[in-house]
Design a protein that fits this description.
single chain, OB fold (Dihydrolipoamide Acetyltransferase, E2P), two-stranded antiparallel ribbon, 1 helix
């Protein structure tokens, strides 16, 4: 099985806050990344897609680099559909030289 690769370019976090319909204050911390999805044959798409994900309140943002999506964040929801919970990333087994070469390409 091919792991989904995720590239983080910046450890910048955007915070969104407000008040819920129930009158409770909330704050969400988002980080941006790029995910390399797979085609119908299981091969990595040529270009990644930008996406945003929520990071837990006290969690440090992910440092720039290459990661793989931790499959433990996938689950079957209450209507039997596959869903993604809180995104968890694991450092990819890629050297700094490989990452730099990929960035230059």
């Amino acid at each position: 099985m091919n792991a989904l690769k995720v590239e983080i370019e910046s450890n910048e976090v955007n915070t969104k806050s407000g008040t819920s319909k129930q009158g409770k204050a909330f704050s969400l911390r988002e980080q941006a990344g790029y995910i390399y999805t797979l085609d119908d044959q299981g091969k990595q798409q040529r270009h990644p897609q930008a996406f945003k994900f929520i990071i837990d309140g006290e969690q440090d943002p992910y440092a720039p680099g290459m990661y793989t999506l931790d499959m433990s964040c996938l689950y079957v929801g209450r209507f039997g559909q596959l869903e993604v919970g809180h995104v968890k990333l694991k450092p990819a087994a890629v050297s700094a030289a490989q990452y730099s070469a990929a960035k230059a390409a």
